TrEMBL record:
InterPro entries: D-isomer_2-hydroxyacid_DH (IPR050223), D-isomer_2_OHA_DH_cat_dom (IPR006139), D-isomer_DH_NAD-bd (IPR006140), NAD(P)-bd_dom_sf (IPR036291). Keywords: NAD, Oxidoreductase. The keyword Oxidoreductase applies. GO terms for cellular component: cytosol. The keyword Signal does not apply. It comes from the Bacteria. Residues 124-303 form the D-isomer specific 2-hydroxyacid dehydrogenase NAD-binding domain. Belongs to the D-isomer specific 2-hydroxyacid dehydrogenase family. Gene3D superfamilies: NAD(P)-binding Rossmann-like Domain. This is D-glycerate dehydrogenase. It comes from Silvanigrella paludirubra.
Length: 342
């Protein structure tokens, strides 16, 4: 399509996203060239050199697109009318938010729709690790048989009367606690200065503990907090040493929350009995530390990967695009966009 003919509102995405239509309500979407060997900045330049980009006002991205200074400057230079960056996802640690704001971009994300799907995966990991599901599956899959039933064969750990410690008691943490309590687990949360006041209307209220007490009582620890400069490598060697012997680690948040060499050491020396990860550092390539770690069950970042959730995520992004479109049409006062990151 020739952009010069169109007089409507255009957005440019790094790829096609579920739930974000390419043509709807006077809004038309385009995607960057599918050239994996090129950087985002290079793709933007290639696109801008081959198209009239005057009507492009929103840029859509996701977690696998690092938008740091170079990339943001490329958007500013080659897509001069873009003032909105829409993120397909909740986490935005891949975007230099402060620099984006300095360049005049309003950044939005897609919160509030990943909760149930991510909590499902967290509890799936919990069950798979404690009941040694991966080991059992691999034995039958690889050999088409197993040694036979025995009283001590592939013994796992029961969940009843165990304690699940939640790091990050937000919406996903609460949804996980609801599932855990139904399975007979006691739940506690790590106390933090960032916690909002206790939600008196919540049906899942749990005790908040100091870090030392939290590590003493938790049989399973689930990371459900955002990645920030303060939380990077939060689960390090020092903290792992405080965790009770035989505990299990679950992470569905961000890989960089964990110091992976320290986690691998704790698994290999049997200080921890297992770990279930849906995220890891330097995705999609697994580190050598995790490759050689014992008793670890790893998924390829599918926490939000349901048809319904991904459509809803796209819907959030498209809501922000539509609001921006209405501003351009003077049907909405310019200001804070839906789901804009403060």
């Amino acid at each position: 399509m020739n952009l010069t003919v169109e007089k409507t509102f255009h957005y440019l995405g790094t790829r096609i996203f579920p739930g974000i239509p390419l043509t709807k309500d006077g809004i038309i979407g385009f995607t960057l060239p599918d050239t994996p060997e090129k950087t985002i900045a290079q793709k933007i330049q290639i696109f801008a050199n081959s198209q009239n980009v005057d009507n492009i006002y929103s840029f859509i991205t996701c977690i696998i697109d690092n938008l740091e200074k170079k990339e943001l400057e490329a958007i500013k230079e080659y897509l001069p009318n873009v003032t909105h960056i829409g993120n397909f996802g909740v986490g935005f640690n891949h975007i230099d938010i402060d620099y984006a704001k300095n360049l005049g971009f309003r950044v939005t994300n897609s919160p509030g729709v990943l909760t149930e799907a991510t909590a499902d995966i967290a509890f799936t990991l919990l069950l798979c690790v404690t009941r040694r599901v991966a080991e059992g599956y691999s034995i039958v899959k690889n050999t088409s048989k197993y040694p036979g039933w025995a009283p001590d064969y592939l013994l796992g750990t029961s969940l009843q009367n165990k304690t699940l410690g939640i790091v990050g008691y937000g919406e996903i943490g609460k949804a996980l606690a609801k599932r855990a309590k139904a399975f007979g687990l006691k739940c506690v949360a790590l106390k933090s200065n960032n916690w909002d006041s206790i939600d008196k209307n919540s049906s899942i209220e749990i005790e908040r503990l100091s870090e030392n007490d939290f590590f003493k009582v938790s049989d399973i620890i689930s990371l459900n907090c955002p990645l920030t400069e303060q939380s990077k490598n939060w689960l390090n060697q020092e903290r792992i040493s405080k965790i009770k012997q035989g505990a299990v680690i679950i992470n569905t948040a961000r890989g960089e929350l964990i110091d992976e060499p320290s986690l691998a050491d704790a698994l290999n020396n049997n200080h921890l009995s297992g770990a279930g990860l849906d995220v890891f550092c330097h995705e999609p390539v697994l580190s050598e530390h995790l490759k050689t770690a014992k008793n670890i069950f790893i998924l390829p970042h599918i926490g939000s990967a349901t048809h319904e959730t991904r459509q809803a995520m796209g819907g959030r992004v498209f809501d922000s695009i539509k609001a921006h479109f209405k501003e351009r049409q003077e049907l909405r006062q310019k200001g804070v966009l839906p789901f804009q990151i403060k």
